Amino acid sequence: MSQRSLAPGRPLADEQLRTEGTLASHGGWARAWDLLFALTTRELMLRYRGTVLGYLWWVARPLVLGLVLWFALRKVLDVQVPHYPLFIMTGLFPWFWFSSAVSEASGVMLGHSTMVKKVVFPRAILPLSSAAGNVAQFIFTLPVLLVFLVVGHVHPSPMWLVGIPLLILLQFALTVGIGLTLSVLNVFFRDISPLIDVSMTMLFYGSAVIFPLDRVPHGIRPFLLLNPLTTLMEAWRTVLLDGQLPHRDIFSAVGLAVGGLLAGVTVFRALERYIADAL
Amino acid sequence: MRSDDIALSVDNVSKRFLVAQMRPWRASEALLHPISFTREVLFGEPFWALHDITVNVRSGEFLGIIGQNGSGKSTLLRVMAGLSPPTTGRVTARGRVASILDLGAGFHPLATGRENAFINGLLLGLSKEEIRAKLPEILRFAELEEFADRPMRTYSSGMTLRLSFAVAVHVRPDIFLIDEVLAVGDADFQEKCFSHFESLKREGVTIVFVSHDLGSVERFSDRVLLLEAGRISASGDARDIVSKYLQDLAERSPAARRQLEQALRRALAAWRENDRIESEDSSSVGAEERS
């Protein structure tokens, strides 16, 4: 038989076909990165293509909920918390990032089911791109929060330059880990979606997003502190409102982020090759 | 056949689906009926979509796969593409595999044709520089230059096919898997696809083609596999296998026989039509030469 007459410059490597379409098997990391970047920007740009307010919708959600809570808790129930509007906003912005990242990532395989079933590509791209899109969204809305703080007489602190990137990194790692885990589990156990809805409500009130920890009765406070999201939310306040670096309490949040990431990678790698058949 | 001449080897592949996998597999079910659920997972009758499939596709070969609905054609193609892990056996591919298993899989309805072509190229394994350089050529091949900046939701299924096909062939795959999508293209574009297959074949590209369009399968395949209930029931020369399949169908049911007769009549009419056009063509060419 004659040698294959291939077009020049086309390298042909003997290659065992990988059935799982992992990150490394798909033409290397550089291409996976290109794909991740393109999918993320497409999602971000398309989400509000054709809307009148566009970017404003990104900031509208935390602002509107903050306004409602401020009215209900401060004006009606007369809750006494100093600088309550600032307090609520510093909790709500990171909270909205967390909750939309988690609920979006959990539906990402089901939402792209034809693509997952019919196209070979590294499956991890989908939850990663969802997490990346959400952190980008948070970063783009952060200036609004900072302006809000400055207008409310919080002095911009040099610690912001260290603390904010640190917390963003931490929370990003956390959302990636949770996103990987839930996106793949949701394929096999469809109860995940309603479970997330319910848990988000519980977490919202269980993470001291809208009330200061020291108002929580002594008997209950330790339980709230067991929830590492609480320490993360407290850390955001320490950085943004007090202009200090988060103290040692942050270690439970670090542990959560690292643990969540490791768990996510493990679960995902174990199950990713079965995703296409199960959808 | 030398072993280094094989582009795609499917070695003793079987694919099993558990009964539990074929129904919506929910945690609620496992929790509510743990005993019957466990029994079904452990002892339920599994469904074997593929049985002991062994096929070696040579580089530059055009392999057609035919068979009735549910015979395992698409499953086999998915296993070949690496989308679905085989239960037993193994699949080895040499070089870059590109597949069109569904129309516009991975396309976003709100993104423009150009944006979708870009992402699709990345999905099939091109780098962003490569796909950027090839975009104009892709749009030209798909004949979609003037629609490139319209959102995908405005595309007809034929236009969607043209775009996905154009991207896939420009990936320069070594192995190209196509599942019954050409049917939505018009005759002109189908002709263009097939003539493109010819040039791909000359470059050594391996093509595996699943279709119910027996005419095209017979015309272009070097070899045809006939699948029946997940097994290879026949394999060999395109004309023999296609006529065997048609006979099988006709023996099996009167409805199929009627369909076959209709198909034959259509084919005959098309053949006559083709003949007429060709003779007109040759006469007009002759006329030009004379003038």
Tell me briefly what this model is:
The complex is a heterodimer of chains A (279) and B (291). With 279 residues, chain A is an all-alpha fold.
> Which segments of chain A are poorly predicted (pLDDT under 50) over 5 or more consecutive residues?
1-25
Number of β-strand runs of chain B:
9
How far the N terminus sits from the C terminus of chain A, by CA atoms, comes to 43 Å
Q: Which structural class fits the helix and strand makeup of chain A? A: mainly alpha
Report the sheet-strand fraction of chain A.
under 5%
SSE string of chain A:
HHHHHHHHHHHH
How many helices of chain B? The count is 11
Number of helices of chain A: 12
Relative strand content of chain B: 15-25%
Spatial shape of chain B: globular
Determine the N-to-C terminus distance of chain B: 52 Å
- What ranges of chain B have pLDDT less than 50 throughout 5 or more consecutive residues? 285-291
For the biggest sheet of chain B, the summary is: 6 strands, mixed
The mean pLDDT of chain B is 83
Q: Give the largest chain-chain interface (CB within 8 Å).
A: A-B, 45 and 48 residues
Rg of chain B: 22 Å
Radius of gyration of chain A: 22 Å
Spatial ordering of strands, largest sheet of chain B: 5-6-7-3-8-9
Question: What is the oligomer described by this structure?
Answer: heterodimer
Number of strands of chain A: 0
Which percent bin holds the helix content of chain A? 55-70%
Protein described:
The complex is a heterodimer of chains A (279) and B (291). Chain A has 279 residues and is mostly helical. Chain A has helices at residues 28-47, 56-76, 84-106, 108-111, 113-118, 125-151, 159-188, 192-206, 221-226, 228-240, 250-271, 275-278. Chain A contains 12 helices and no strands. The model of chain A is unreliable at 1-25 (pLDDT under 50). Chain B contains 11 helices and 9 strands. Chain B has helices at residues 19-22, 27-32, 34-43, 73-81, 113-123, 128-141, 157-170, 187-202, 214-220, 238-252, 254-290, and strands spanning 6-17, 47-58, 62-67, 88-93, 97-100, 175-179, 206-210, 223-228, 231-236. In chain B, strands 5-6-7-3-8-9 form a 6-stranded mixed sheet, with helices on both faces. Chain B has a 3-stranded antiparallel sheet with strand order 2-1-4. In chain B, helix 5 (113-123) packs across helix 6, helix 5 (113-123) packs across helix 7 and helix 6 crosses helix 7 (157-170). The longest helix of chain B has 37 residues, at 254-290. Chain B is globular. The model of chain B is unreliable at 285-291 (pLDDT under 50). The interface between A and B is large, with 45 and 48 residues.
